[in-house]
Amino acid sequence: MSIVQFLRILAARWKMIFGVMLACVAVASVVAVSLPKRYPASARVLLDVVKPDPVTGQSVGRDVRGYVNTQVQLIRDMRVAGAVVDKLGWANDPATIASYEASGRTEADGGIRAWLGQQIIDGTSAGLVSGSTILEIQYQSSDPERSKQVVSAIRDAFVTTALDFRTDSADRSSLWFQQQAEKNRLALAEAEAALAKYMQENSIIMAGGMDGESAKLAQLQAALQQARGQQSTTDVMVAGRLANDPVTDQLQLQLATIEDELALAGARLGSEHPSYKAIEARRNTLRNQISRAQSSSRSGVSALSGAVQQSVAKLERDVEAQSKLVLERKPIIDELVRLSREVDLRRQQYESSAARTAQLRLEADVTETGLVVLGDPVASKTPSYPKVNLIIIMSALFGLGLGLLAAVISEFIARRVRGEEDLSYATGVPVLVTVGTSSSSPLRLRLQKLFGRRSSDDGDGELQAI
């Protein structure tokens, strides 16, 4: 079939096509008008995903998409829908109860609360407003005021449920950590009791984080180190005192003066002169005094040095004896260290679990949800369903296509000869001449050449009726 034949069929059966299209439009219009209207209402909530948690300090961060999807699913969850049913009191409405009983559902299907909740879920949708973190909740019903009332209840139930989910989770976790803290406290008490019993059985006294014997050894070692330092200082002081004794130095100065006088008297008076003998006697006296002074100084510093040496020697003996005692008690001390570490470990576990319990209790008491209610719910007076204009347009297009299909099928059922192409197809021979037709216009000839299977120029000629 060529395009020319198809257009001839459309021109011949345009009434059928137009009638089918009108019928489809009429039926669709009646159906669209008779369909129950649904009016939307919306309420908005701001998702504060940037503000950190007041207790943990954490924020949503990069997982905004997952967080938003979670909130959307929560809005359409039965827990929120059930809370809406309870708040609006639909389960106690006689008309609603009658409708529920007429539906044939039973308590085995979840009861009237689940039935009403599912209706709310079916009419609810939610999503982010483009380019923002504002979550818009929508609900549709046959009454705009009812839609507004329901969407307001959905938003309130959503905020309350989000807070409940958060606090319930923290409360359950805090109970578990509280149990762990109690177990760790009992374990700590047992470890401390075992440590105290062991110390009592082995006569161990703790001082500064170590047993008494080890502490005593540490003290003796510190004292020995200090005494050795004092000994070095004393040696230096003794050497300096012997070298710089003021009494001896004064006597030495006097002796030098007398020596000079004696040499002068010997040269002038001679060694047998009484003056020379007197000066010599004074010199001998000074020498004796110097000898006694040096002896006294050496005796004093020797006593001081000896006392320091004795102190160092005694401390060395005490350190050696105490070290031997500590080594003998090493197995006991090792067991003491092990028990002490056990106590420290149990204390750390208890403090960690107690701190976590306190933090979770704060989270369970928090009233911050990260959701900010924006404005009042808004209901539209224009129904969102059905869209009559769109239905009519779509029905007209569908009717046009159906009419075209009906026309083509009708043509094939009762085929007609509407032109030379149909006659050639019916007889199986080419059409040579068309008799009784008027001259074709140039435009018609071009269209025949373009769309037809053959044009009139392919024949021997064209005869006109006389």
Description:
The chain contains 14 helices and six strands. Helices cover 69% and strands 8% of the residues. Helix 4 crosses helix 7 and helix 8 runs antiparallel to helix 10. Strand 2 and strand 3 form a beta hairpin. Among the domains are: 148 residues; 50 residues, no CATH class. The strands form two sheets. The protein has a four-stranded antiparallel β-sheet. Strands 4-5 form a two-stranded antiparallel sheet. By secondary structure, it is an alpha+beta fold.
In short:
By secondary structure, the protein is an alpha+beta fold.
Task: Summarize this structure as a short list of keywords or feature phrases.
466 residues; alpha+beta; 4-stranded antiparallel sheet; two-stranded antiparallel sheet; 14 helices; 6 strands
